[in-house]
Predict the 3D structure of the following.
Amino acid sequence: MSAIELCAGGPRLSPIVAGAWRMDSWGWTPAERLRWIEQCMDLGTTSFDHADIYGGYTVEALFGEALVLAPALRERMQLVSKCGIKLVSAQRPAHRLKSYDTSAAHIIASVEQSLKALRTDRLDLLLIHRPDPLMNAQEIADTFARLRRDGKVLHFGVSNFTPSQFELLDAACPLSTNQIELHPLHLAPLHDGTLDQAQRLKRRPMIWSPLAGGRLFTADDDAARRVHTALRAVAGRLGSTPATVAYAWLLRHPSQPVPVAGSRRIEALREAVDALSLRLDAETWTEIWQAGSGHEVP
Ligand SMILES: NC(=O)c1ccc[n+]([C@@H]2O[C@H](COP(=O)([O-])OP(=O)(O)OC[C@H]3O[C@@H](n4cnc5c(N)ncnc54)[C@H](OP(=O)(O)O)[C@@H]3O)[C@@H](O)[C@H]2O)c1
């Protein structure tokens, strides 16, 4: 599985990224976490997605504890992290309420903390986690330039930005990606300009919760039941699995999405990787879209 560029001159990531958000709930020892990292990498999934706040500010350190057992892995992996959300947490007693902060001081402090926790000297990609109504694009651009100059972060992007928010910041400093939610139960980016912009600017979107956090298979509301039934039907016809079809549905979009898988199971990651060689035709893609939307195309 060869690496892809998120955009021209942007970070080179694996075409499926492994998400670490849920790692604190896995209850693993450092050696077990290292085994998971190695198995991901053996499958070709060499990029790992983090955020300062995951696990209430604990996941980066859990990952770093494992990485320090095999530090040579760092040269073969890519680390993505995020900043800009402040949680109320025992780990951050100064935070009075959940809020956003994209000031230079907060971004720099957050990156320093991420580097320490992950036991690394650099991030391959840093994302602003959520659009901050008070963000000052020039201040963020200057901060990104400083982090790049210091060799602490190699590339920058955003997450959950609207097209106009993306444009605002991209004009001040070129962004590599917008990491967004997309799956058959969340179709908005197909219609609100987010994926049009990604395709036009040739910035491959990263896709979080590609399986709707498991709801594609576990929820029992009408929409989820329709999607699950459609995924099973398509998988049966194509000799594949419902999860692989769900990933293939994302990968079929011409903006060339890069899914961030959230499972602890290596078998689930393998199902994601398998989707790289499964191309859905437009009718099959529409069948799944229709299951999610609940109506046929106009
Ligand atoms: N930028 C953002 O705002 C943002 C927001 C959320 C997440 N993220 C990133 O995106 C990553 C992925 O998000 P996610 O964890 O929600 O992804 P996901 O892959 O949609 O969901 C993973 C969850 O679904 C379960 N699952 C997977 N396959 C299943 C199946 N066949 N049947 C039943 N359950 C199944 C997993 O359980 P098992 O582990 O047991 O398989 C896990 O709990 C995160 O780790 C994080 O890095 C970013």
In short: The chain has a mean pLDDT of 98.
